[in-house]
Amino acid sequence: KNKIIKDEVLKIQNDLFEIGAALANPFEKTKNLKELLNRRTQEMEKSIDNLTKKIPVLSNFILPGGGEAGAFLHLARTICRRVEREIIRLSKKEEIEFNIISYLNRLSDHLFTLARFANVVERQKEIIWIKKTK
After folding, report:
1. Quick check: 122 pLDDT over 70?
2. Measuring CA to CA, which residue among 11, 37, 13, 44 is closest to residue 113?
3. What is the pLDDT of residues 45-56, one digit of tens each?
4. Distance of CA 125 to CAs 28, 55, 60, 70, 95, Å?
5. Angle 108-57-76 from CA coordinates, rounded to 5°
6. What does the alpha-carbon distance between residue 19 and residue 8 come to, in Å, rounded to a whole number?
7. Bridge partners of 128?
8. ∠ CA(72), CA(8), CA(91), 5° rounding?
9. Mind listing the pLDDT tens digit for each residue in 23-33?
10. How far is CA 76 from CA 9, 19, 92, 109, 132, in A?
């Protein structure tokens, strides 16, 4: 729906295919992967900064959800965190390009920011988490 979100998701999908190819065949070293991931990580950081200016300041934890796009982006963020943990586990057994881990770490933050932005675009209110136990 939103061009900013659509463009970002398309870039992310392409990045993930590059990462998947590198993980599927670790013996074929891709020269440009390190540079690509460095550049894309910097681009994501700029995007996070730009989108953060367009969304309310976050002073509480929020529950994932919102509109359809926001909910899917929150889901993607949680999957991204899981993948990051699995790749860290794999890196203890196999040689992994470190930039993959850095990229995934920033990607999860980017997906969180995109989810919040999507909810603003869709006029969906964020639900603040309220701790029920002490």
Report:
1. yes
2. 44
3. 999 999 999 999
4. 46, 11, 14, 11, 43
5. 20
6. 16
7. 62
8. 80
9. 988 777 666 88
10. 10, 16, 25, 11, 26
